[in-house]
Amino acid sequence: MHLDRDVVLLITHSGDYFTIDRVVEAVSKLGAQPFRLDTDKFPIALQLQANLSNSGSNHTLQYNDRSLNTEQVQAVWMRRIWQPDLGKELAPQFQAVCSNESLAVLDGFWDSLREATWVDDLRRISAAENKLRQLRIASEVGLVIPRTLVTNNPQEAREFFHQVKGKMIVKLLRPLSSGMQASSFFMYTSVVKEEDLLDAETLRYCPVMFQEQIPKQQELRAVYVNGNLFVGALDASEYAASTQDWRRETKKILTWQPEQLPDKLIRCLDAFMAKFGLIFGAFDLIKTPSGEYVFLEINPTGEWGMLERDLDYPIALAIASALLSKSPK
């Protein structure tokens, strides 16, 4: 299939749907050609080729009967980079090295796209994924953050538990990849009970992030796209008794409502995004019963499909516009 130079490369995986489809549609409406790259299909079903010499370099890929030269790519949407699916025929002792080599080739391929507009730059995404850096920057720009302890010292964890009067939650510092297995206690934000800390010696092997448990009136997902905010709110009373993480609840329970944030808070979010140099980000915030807004975290490649689906927000169009803008904010 022939492609011109106005190509938008969409980096995702084969199990992705709805959000990727909406961005494909929006890019097409704006007159560019979307090219979906399912990273888990490399190297089995997706071919990459890099030719480099002193006279220059050339990078091409072929996927689903479509060929692409990186010189054709105007913009790149960084949604997901997935572990390679190497199938079951490859011997187990070769799986790890082949996976690592495949990811290294992809990393070099991304470098060949450095002149394109990225939403967002991989280095900026990586920097913004660090939750300790997030909390520091959030506090610096005027956002309220929860009291937080990251430690591998069991006694420090027990003391913090009493400092916050037994109202404590635990969460991961980094998201698990698709290929890693973990209990729901580690996958999601969970309440810590005193008995959980009686035998906390395993902290010596893995530091953990503990935070004070913030009382909730609403949980907010605020999707930021190039200066635009799309905010959805959940009534925490619908699920807070059963879980501290709305992602564990069923669609029947969750009812997203549109929400408008105060101007002062919006200015803080603008400053936060500027500090990280991000175009896109999905903020998680809490509105307390007293009306205070508390920053929890930002996911620089976070989910937003439920807000476009339930609230008819034009998030996909905003992302496509940012990708095709010659001078993004």
Automatic annotation (TrEMBL):
SUPFAM superfamilies: Glutathione synthetase ATP-binding domain-like. InterPro entries: ATP-grasp (IPR011761), ATP_grasp_MvdC (IPR026446), MvdD-like_ATPgrasp (IPR048936). Keywords: ATP-binding, Nucleotide-binding. Signal peptide: none annotated. PROSITE patterns: ATP_GRASP. Residues 135-324 form the ATP-grasp domain. Pfam families: ATPgraspMvdD (PF21068). This is MvdC family ATP-grasp ribosomal peptide maturase. The lineage of its organism: Bacteria, Bacillati, Cyanobacteriota, Cyanophyceae, Nostocales.
